[in-house]
Amino acid sequence: ARRLLQKFKLDGLYKGQEEVDGDEYNVEADDEGSGPFRAFLDVGLVRTTTGARVFGAMKGAADGGVDIPHSVKRFPGYDEDKDELDADVHRSHIFGGHVGDYMKHLQEEDGDAYQRQFGKYIKLGVNADGLEAMYKKVHSAIRADPAPKAAAKKEVKTKRWNKAKLNLAQRKDKVRQKKEAWLKKVAAGDA
């Protein structure tokens, strides 16, 4: 969202929600300049269940300052009986609280499964208690500089499934070597 607004020079007008609290946030038009960038959520074939990742992505874009018409009925923490959103539950999901709980559960129950599932986290030194701090750091870094970082170029060697073509000199040399080998064999009396 911040990158898109920066591209259209709207990032100064529409700051979005600077402090993530899990509450509903809708971008309002500024009277002085251009209207907000409006986008519509197209879920395609994704199932629209409560707490689905597609709604998390939409919430991130809306909090970033893009005007996306939506309701809070599909966010985690929405209670149908009370017809209201529990912002604390939603905030916990935004900052990976449910992942941290699962990490703690796996660590206590099955150490091997924990090692398998969260091996990269362990390697990078991220634990269940540090997830919220990590996500806050990421949010602040995106706000500071939303421009995409250039990926390091990797040297990729393609696998060749067939032999490379030989040029004329190489083909003639190959024939010459076969002739010499055959003549040696005939001279030795093996042929």
Summarize the structure.
With 191 residues, the chain is mainly alpha-helical.
Detail the topology: elements first, then pairings:
Layout: H1 2-7, H2 53-64, E1 78-79, E2 84-85, H3 87-94, H4 97-109, H5 111-117, H6 119-124, H7 131-144, H8 168-188
Antiparallel strand pairs: 1-2
Helix pairs in contact: 4-5
Explain what this protein looks like in three dimensions.
The protein is built from 8 helices and 2 strands; from the N terminus they run ααββαααααα. It has a two-stranded antiparallel ribbon with strand order 1-2. It is elongated and about 100 Å long. The chain is mostly helical and 191 residues long. The N and C termini lie far apart (78 Å).
List descriptors.
191 residues; mainly alpha; two-stranded antiparallel ribbon; 8 helices; 2 strands
**Beta-strand content bin:** under 5%
Return Rg in Å. Answer: 30 Å
- Uncertain segments: none
List the total number of helices. Answer: 8
Any idea what the shape is? Answer: elongated
According to DSSP, the number of beta strands is: 2
Question: Structural class, from secondary structure content?
Answer: mainly alpha
Order of helices and strands: HHEEHHHHHH
With strands numbered from the N-terminus, the spatial order across the biggest sheet is 1-2
Measured distance between first and last alpha carbons = 78 Å
